[in-house]
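Hey,
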Amino acid sequence: METAILSLRVPQEVKEQLNKLAKATHRSQSFLGSDAIRRYVEIESWQIAEIQQAVTEADGDDFATDDEFNAVVKKHAG
């Protein structure tokens, strides 16, 4: 996998916590930071895609009927 350098500023407290975590896990700060950013990007990308899909469905009037909605509410309410 090709990598690239990314420099960023974090609060000193976060840097210190990252250093402690790196020592405790025997991983580099770079590995932990990269992994954290990768996870964040994956989650945010998924969430944005879901929101965009929901907006597309709403724009196309693709809504649940009242009966479908009430059936779901009834299923999970009891």
